[in-house]
Amino acid sequence: MIVQADNVKEPMTWTQLNSLEQLNQIKNASGYSLIFKHSTRCSISMMAKRRFEMDWDSIPDNTPLYFLDLLTYRDISNKIADLFQVHHQSPQMLLIKDGECILEASHSDISAEEAAGLITT
Question: How far apart are CA 54 and CA 11, in angstroms?
């Protein structure tokens, strides 16, 4: 008999951000969405992503989590900077509420717990 501990995390599931249509949906959505911009060739970006994923379960379940491979989708990354009026960074996390960026963090400042704190207040 296999018993699973109550504190075992479910695996994190990202929604791949790969179209401008998705970006417009995020901009026009009510509530919260989170975008994680990641460079697949950067060790700092890998470390920030790993740290975020370790604490992702602090974010409410109904919060859409979007992952952008900015090397593959540079045009979407550029559009994010314009649409949400943020300076491009990599890695970068943006918390969007009702179409506006309310939290932008990059590199070691990326924190799932900080984003969760804003969502739950």
Answer: 10
Q: Using only C-alpha atoms, what is the Rg of the chain?
A: 15
- Between strands 100-106 and 32-38, the pairing is unpaired
Length of the chain (residues) = 121
- Profile the chain (121 residues) by mean pLDDT over runs of 10 residues: 49 90 96 95 93 91 94 95 94 97 96 94 69
Cα distances from 105 to residues 4, 35, 48, 90, in angstroms, run 35, 11, 11, 10
Q: Report residue 115 as tokens.
A: 């984003």
Which residues have C-beta within 8 Å of that of residue 68, sequence separation ≥ 6?
A: 17, 18, 35, 36, 37, 38, 76, 77, 80
CATH code for 15-119? 3.40.30.10
